[in-house]
Amino acid sequence: MKLLKYTILLFGTCSLLLVSSCKKFLDVEPVDRLGSNSFWKTKQDVESAVADCYGLIYDRLTVGPYHNLNGDIRAGEFICPGFPVFPTVAKNDLSNSSQVALPARYKGDLLADWYPFYQAIAACNIALDRLDDLTFLDDTEKARYKAEVKFIRAFTYFYISRIYGDVPLYTKAYDGSAKSRTNFIDVLRFCIQELEETKEALPWQYTDPTNWGVRASRASSETLIANCYMWIAGFDKANQQVYWQKAADAALNVKNSGFFQLLPIEDFKKIFKGKTRESIFEFSVNKNYGSETKYVSLGQWTTHSPIVNYGANSDGYYLASYVQKLYPPTAPDKRRDVWFYLPYINNTTQMFLKYSNVTDVNNYLFDDNMIIFRYSGVLLLGAEALANLGRNGEAVPLLNMVRNRAGATEYSPSEGNLVDAVFMEEQKELIGEGVRWYDLVRTGRVMDISQCVDFLTPEQFNQGAWTWPINPKARVNNPNIVLNQYWVK
């Protein structure tokens, strides 16, 4: 099973997750092994339990192309007509469940089921319940493990809040109550509080490079805090200034730590293979440990020969008009030069090469890490927050750090509004990394027809058209769950 492989991959331990047949209102099956008194006897047990927490969320995100499906493809600029799920999502036609489900091997329809995310949350809750009672750990070790597990739980809540909006907030082990959905702003505030209380128990960076990016660190906590604040700021506009300030502080904390750097853009395959000085948080994928992805990495649909043995055409491509908007032909930008083949061709001879660590050219297997946060993204998020605050003198150097690495022209006031320039830079730098739709939503740009192909009207946005549908089976064991009404037809 994938969880076993991920446990071995992350910590070099061999554990097997067993789930009980017990059913709770939310239909979360607690982990028998983690709740057993025969477990939790050694530090190795603790390491294995923490790995299981990572592994459960990794399992969910690698069932299908979910990270890019909702994070990138939904904005409408990626064209992949041969598989119904992609154009259906690109048109925000999510109530057309029969098309979202095709082809079946991509399992696009299963993203409506939030149960597997709550398996990860349940494992975190059990681990937190047991850690305080372990006498073989000293206080420093307990604090570090608790901080790591709380990061995983906070990340999971952050991730699902951006997908579904309001979600039930479960924080106690074996909580069988039928909770209603909690406002996602309150959920993210809870996450921020947990991260602020525990972040100092984590190292900024691990001495062992094999842990870089794939285990929670002070840097990943600060970055998640910044992202939570920026998401909240998009919806609680009366308090935006406070949230932008706190997001900027968290991002600058990462920069000022001195532990991270931008690698040469020509080393992009190394960056996306992961575990570099640019890594903040990512899920590890490694063929040597039996972990490869298929129907997950965007590279599977954007490459052809000679990257993979797939003839002269890939399955999908970015609209040439969008690529030109990001990287004008007359403007220098190494990202365009190394991430794309035939960038301005509006058909499947184009290749998007950001994810091209191929392990099997015939079966289209990849082992690029699933990048969640990296240093360039933190710098740009900080620049965005500072620009929103009118602190342009602090924002521009962060923006130019990313531009300089890309061989692009430094920012000039003649470009116009700095906030817009930073947002555009985020789209250039993070293209294909599962953030575009969320950036459009949190900034309100998703309601601007000039900003994206799959735009929403203000009425649609306010009705929740930016969320993903929730499978009605969520109500089977919890009658207090109200589905996302925009998608209830």
Automatic annotation (TrEMBL):
Entry's InterPro entries? Answer: SusD-like_N (IPR033985), SusD_RagB_dom (IPR012944), TPR-like_helical_dom_sf (IPR011990)
Q: Which residues form the RagB/SusD domain?
A: 347-487
Q: Report the Pfam families cross-referenced here.
A: SusD-like_3 (PF14322), SusD_RagB (PF07980)
Cellular localisation: Cell outer membrane
Keyword Cell membrane among record annotations: no
Q: Which keywords describe this protein according to UniProt?
A: Cell outer membrane, Membrane, Signal
Residue ranges of the SusD-like N-terminal domain?
106-217
Q: What is its main location?
A: membrane
Hydrolase as UniProt keyword: no
Cellular component aspect of the GO annotation? cell outer membrane
Which family does the entry's similarity section mention? Belongs to the SusD family.
The name on file for this protein is: Starch-binding associating with outer membrane
**Species this chain originates from:** Pedobacter steynii
